[in-house]
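**Polypeptide and fold**
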Amino acid sequence: MLRFSLRRWQSGFQRLASSGGSSLRQAYVAQTTGAEHRQRCVSTASGGHGTAAKSPDLLYQSTSDVIEYDVVVIGGGHAGCEACSAAARAGASAVLVTQRVDTIGEMSCNPSFGGIGKGVLVREVDAMDGLCGRMADLGGVQFRILNRSKGPAVHGPRAQVDRVIYKRNMLQTLQTYAGLDIKAGSVADILLDRSTELDEQALKRLASQDSTLATSSATVVGVRLESGEIIRARKVVITTGTFLGGEIHIGLKAFPSGRKGEAASIGLSKSLKDAGFRLGRMKTGTPPRLDGLTIDYSRMPKQLGDMPVSPFSFIHDSVPHANDQVACYQTHTTPAVHDMIRANFDQSIHIRETIRGPRYCPSLESKVKRFSEKESHLIWLEPEGLPEHTSTVYPNGISNTMPEDIQQKFLRMIPGLENVVMTQPGYGVEYDHVDPRELKRTLETKRVNGLYLAGQINGTTGYEEAAAQGLLAGANAGLAAVHSKAECESQEAPQLSLDRSDGYLGVLIDDLITRGVNEPYRVFTARSEYRLSSRANNADLRLTRRAAALGLVRDSARLARLDTVEADMAHAQALLEQVVYLPHIWEAQLGGSRRVVRDGVRKSALDMIRKGFLSEDLWAGARDPENVPPEHIPKARKLTGGPEISAIVPAWADVPLDIRRRVVTEAMYHGHLRQLNAEANTFKREESMRLPADIDYSKVRVLSHEEVDKLSIVRPDTFGAAKRIDGITPGGILALLKYVRQNRTAESA
């Protein structure tokens, strides 16, 4: 009986794979009894990692091109690298399928990681044992903390990265990653199994619906490659970046591609649309590349890296190239450049307004058009690596899609670039994305069980946003796959699910799934209402143990280091709490320069830091930041006024600098953090109030037509998420709460 069920299943799989076209195929699996199903799953699970599925000899001969994994990740960009490694850490057998193995980890645009908000995301990925922070440290050629003149809550770690080193280290890491295989190939189709057949008209109706069906009508069973090979899988993660329906624009020329010299993924885009997903169109761009040997740097301000450096990874104390960091240089556009751009607007098809580009990283054409009153725009000349690897320079700030001859002309109108040689023209890319309101909080799609999306396919922009989504999607795909093999049907699969109070990754996911996107989404510190508690310097304290509890932290040294950090912080705080004086004695300790309220209450040194009476040089031994007015440097170096802490607590000088920074930052924000924690508790209570997945919002009285439409599109999973949807009124939330309570009462009666 088992052989017959297996054979029917395999034959159906073969017929499915051999059929033509590019739509997502429906595999109609023969119905089996519960015992047969469990036996079949055990047989499937016992198949070798990355080998042909185990079956009787006759069947094996006819299915030798079918291989089996728990998780298939499509795309080798930053989202794909994090997704496949996270799935493997979760205990799943995973395979990364990419068009070209030699482009895994390619930095398609700027040669840098991090920045304001983005740097916190990199730290959060690293805290959960992700890869990009470590790879950026190994390949980093200039490190800086942005926003140093402001408080630690908005500091932004950033690094210029050598493209060659980053890509090489990422590929080597993935090639030796336990539980992970890499396969070169293009995915032609996602293979689905439906319990009931949908005819063509029904599928078209599904595609035209604005409402996202919370109960999925299909389940992923694998993928078919263009070579004809079939990979059976429990979960599939799509991380195609700008390759999904990608089209490159240079001047009036347009051709299918996701990155210069590489093919776009056209069939997969059609597959998603055929499956009913709502697709949108976005655009981005990249600047021309310059030969650094032809640039005159003598008239340009120089920007050096920080010393000592601040690595991204919590397991690194320093980086390989700390002592040979490269310099960046600043120049600017001129009125003549702007005039040339204006005169040639008609030479670029990319600047049309029907497709939205990144508002916070606009093209030069957009800046000239939108800010016509400005006579110049800043350009940062960023080396793409160490001199022994490349002389190419990335001119940050002038992405454009002008014809090549015009690009060469306006480049030579820029100070210092009068004799520059352009090694590659800038170009624009238009690409498809899925409405992220189609997704659950785990980044699994609502329409198709077992299908996860991460990166620019969800409407985001940036390496950091992609990597963070990849980790979350890959981890959840891996956890769910392992859980399904164990057949614990009475229990829900464990999930890596983060809310807004947990960190910037939680903010990113929540914004995507509740608000959607109408332009490429990027992370800012201003997007988080919990930015005082979600800092770059405490991501390990917030997330490492949480990820470890799910089995996602493979590096035991990381957990040991966290133990040490927590112990050192407790010791440092104890030192401060042990020094206790009455107010009049504190006044004497402060040299009479500050008046302390004489309330008769003893106060510790920690209390005095919280009240701003003691100070700490957070950047001891570091060079002063460039481009910061002299009057702002004390603020950048010291959090508060008054004597140094070590003058009052001598043992404080023996505490490691990183620990001192962490403890003082917590003390400085103490009052705000107490309020934030109270707000976070209220927030989490609202998040715990679940909404039924199949609720019919049209039956909720009082809701306006607009509210019904928005709730039907987003289908929030909690009342908290419903409150955050633009246009949902307090009255609508109360009506929704009343409706759900009445239905639950009726069901329990």
